[in-house]
Predict the structure.
Amino acid sequence: MGGDCLNRGCVPSKAILSLSKLAKVYKEASALGIKYAPPQIQFSKVMNKVKEAIKNVAPHDSVERYTQLGVECIEGDASLLSPWEVKVGDRVIKTRNIVLATGGSPVYLDIPGIDTVQQYSSDTIWDLKALPPELLVVGGGPIGSELALAFSRLGSKVSIVQRSSQLLPKEDYDVGKLALSTLTKEGIQVLCGARPVKVAKKGKTHTATILLSNGTKKQLSFTHMLVAAGRKAATDSLRSQSLEFEYNDNETLKTNKYLQTRYPNIYAVGDLTGPYQFTHMAGHMGWYAVVNALFSSLLKFPIDYSNVPFITYLSPEFARVGLNEKEAKVAGIPYEVYTYDMKESDRAIAERRTEGYIKVLTVPKKDTILGASIISERAGEMLGELLIAKKYKIGLNKILGVIHPYPSYGEAIKSVAGVWKKSNAPTKALDYLEKHFKKRLGKKTQQ
């Protein structure tokens, strides 16, 4: 119960990130006149605290809770006998509708010598008993970047090998550039435009041969390997069923806009069908699937992917909703950009967290939000206001009219709305007012 996010993903990764921040405090404090001794990392206790976080969240997703809510929870391997029959053990359950939510699993490397090393993933890294002396992370997306940061702060010597030309490749170039700067400052070696092509065992360590974008090769030593090169839909069990489903080119289960498979009463949600591998998207899709299953004879609702929030938990955090510039250019969508630098935020200045900015894309000549990106301390919490504004078409001008508490990080949202207002000032009205007040000033001078 709880799936990947609780047991192997979101909860443990955010727990270890939180704990790793404490290992960095002494360095920052020392520069500010508050002296701490360098930390002594007891890695086994750190991992116990990670498991404790999982245990404390688990009741929210437990069999007991769902049973109390009136849900019958049946544990066992399921098979589909027909579009209306599911078999679990000796029991056959007959039903009008089925929702498939089998999730996903990590993608692993298949290169020469890989059988000489254990490939850890975001699913299995939590089994470590000792801190990896040298950790090689393959993949520089959100998962790879976050875990690289955590283990580096805990004391591992970390290297990232990223196949694309930037970290966080789905985001704008300036976001990837700032992520690179963040990780490099933490002492992490990052190789973009690179991929491992061979692994060899060398005593107690291993050596990876890395092919760089210019065709040259580089050797990296490591003791442990974390593969964060993507995830694939868990479709193996479905392919063995008597029912034949249709699949997309990326091997996810094919559905229509109502989340129906080729069998209209069988729906699919989450990582199984995509396109976004987020827990909050699986929940969002689950709502649409259940409502459509219950009311399809009366009314059906197409899934809405236009307001998907993204958060990457680096320092500073990165959060986004809607279009970024890269996507807008590919789609040929016209836009205007308004940016507010966090160096201007009084709260960020007071807390020495001025790295980052807010970028909002709008419809040309309008305050309608097409997308928003935030790089800042607490960016994930700041995103909520822009997320609501975009979904319900509340323009930047109305955000500007809302009182925001001072000093707060959220006040920066009002400030970026002010940037839009300044760039779209009513020039005719201002020209009239200028003449009006000059005339009044002239009369007062004459008197």
